[in-house]
Write a structure and sequence with these properties.
With 397 residues, the protein is of the alpha/beta class. It has helices at residues 12-24, 45-50, 63-67, 134-145, 166-181, 199-209, 258-262, 303-321, 374-396; strands at residues 4-8, 29-33, 38-40, 59-61, 71-73, 77-81, 86-89, 94-96, 99-102, 106-108, 151-156, 186-191, 214-217, 225-229, 234-237, 242-244, 247-250, 254-256, 287-289, 330-340, 343-354, 357-360, 366-367. Bound molecules: flavin-adenine dinucleotide.
Length: 397
């Protein structure tokens, strides 16, 4: 009988894994478990906030994967039994697997930031998980409804979190909207950190495009938000300042998705430890944990890495089933960010498997050059569009 590969989570890691497995190993039976029937990507969600994309532009169906022969079950994985090698679904069915690819993404740690729970997210949207897009649309509607002259607060967490440059692209895209429609308003970005991804490039861009409309505050200058109050619409800082906001976006602290933690696959950090060559769980060798749910530092929690690790995990799982060695691991990452509609910047890195974990290949990466380079920025915004088109095609067909 055909080997059974079960994939849990149909986002950047899981959809990539399912499609790659079907295309590369036609003799393997692939089942994908994902509750969403339509997937709204986090990447390019910030462009929706800026007014440069509509929800339909970033919504994808599973029909392409189905046409490719992936069996798709729109359900939740409720429990995993690594010893019996089964996944029980919320709907009642139990799936047996030979190898499991687990890519359920992140959980938002409600309660870790006092005042921020699920109800508060209806006032201060996070817009940080794919879902049905309702969070991103809510944030967009709030921006449209706010008066000119208001403050948009963004609370940014400490490391590690999904998409290191994401909060800063969000600052940029919200500022781009405000500049066109509410020019007396500002973005107040309160950060629990001292430094961030592509910092120099972002700050150059903010200065050039938005001037005093963007204020970014590091932790040492009282940027750390320690409490939010949705009723009063305030963010309270570590040193006791209450910032009154017209709109608040909270990017809360995160962990691996619940199914990872509930199945005993995460350690005390809240993330899953994996082998850097095969992405196999350190505690359950037939479960490969990819995407944001694992601790793959220094690799970023990005869609690009989720897609790369998906292919390496599938190839390693199939090799193990055939009694062969896994392929040598090499992981690529490119993260594009939009500072303005026609102003793109990027960071590139290459990683390999080291003896004790993931390692960055020395001198393998870099960021866009700094300076007044409008043509370079215009081209990188186009490259970003091309990246989005190609990765979503690689996921969904
Ligand atoms: P996800 O893509 O979140 O997919 C997880 C899936 O698992 C979801 O569909 C969920 O419904 C499902 N799931 C969860 N639990 C279960 C369960 N129990 N049973 C079944 N299914 C389950 N990355 C880039 O590379 N480039 C970018 O430009 C970029 N921009 C971003 C912008 C923003 C605003 C944000 C928030 C993120 C951005 N990212 C970007 C990061 C990227 O979105 C994530 O790194 C990527 O989605 C991780 O893939 P994943 O498969 O781990 O999780």
């Amino acid at each position: 009988t055909a080997a059974r590969l079960v994939v849990v989570g149909g986002g950047f890691g899981g959809a990539s894994a399912a499609r790659f497995a079907r295309a590369t190993y036609p003799d393997i039976q692939v089942t994908l478990v994902e509750p969403l029937t339509r997937f709204v990507t986090c990447p390019y969600g910030n462009l929706l906030l800026g007014g440069y994309r509509q929800i339909g532009d970033i919504t994808h169906s599973y029909d392409g994967l189905r046409a490719q022969g992936v069996r798709i079950l729109h359900d939740w994985a409720a429990a995993i039994d690594p010893a019996a090698k089964t996944v029980r679904l919320r709907g009642g069915e139990t799936l047996a697997y030979d190898k499991l690819i687990l890519s359920p993404g992140i959980a938002l740690r409600y309660g870790a930031l006092p005042g921020y729970d699920e109800a508060a997210a209806e006032v201060f949207p996070h817009a940080w998980v794919p879902g049905d897009g309702s969070q991103t649309r809510l944030l967009r509607r709030q921006l449209e409804a706010m008066p000119d002259g208001g403050v948009v607060g963004i609370a940014i967490p400490a490391n590690p979190f999904r998409c290191p440059p994401g909060p800063y692209e969000r600052i940029s895209m919200i500022a781009a909207y405000l500049k066109r429609h509410k020019p007396r308003s500002k973005v107040l970005a309160l950060d629990a950190k001292e430094a961030f991804s592509k910092q120099g490039l972002f700050q150059d861009g903010w200065k050039a495009l938005y001037g005093p409309m963007v204020e970014w505050v590091p932790a040492s200058s009282d940027g750390k938000v320690i409490r939010v109050d949705p009723a009063e619409k305030t963010f309270e800082s570590e040193f006791g300042v209450r910032h009154k906001l017209a709109v608040g976006n909270v990017i809360p602290p995160q962990s691996a998705a619940r199914i990872v933690i509930d199945s005993g696959l995460a350690d005390q950090t809240g993330w899953a430890q994996v082998d850097p060559t095969t992405l196999a769980s350190r505690v359950a060798p037939d479960i490969h944990i990819i995407g944001d749910a694992n601790n793959a530092a220094p690799m970023p929690k990005s869609g690009f890495i989720a897609n790369n690790t998906a292919k390496q995990a599938v190839a390693s799982a199939v090799a193990a089933l055939r009694g062969a060695a896994p392929p040598e691991a090499v992981y690529f990452n490119t993260c594009y960010s939009h500072v303005g509609e026609e102003y793109g910047i990027s960071v590139v890195n290459i990683f390999r498997a080291g003896p004790n974990g993931f390692v960055e290949v020395p001198n393998s990466g870099g960021v866009s050059p700094r300076g007044d380079l409008p043509e370079q920025r215009r081209l990188e915004a186009l490259y970003a569009d091309a990246w989005y088109a190609s990765i979503t095609r690689d996921m969904f067909g």
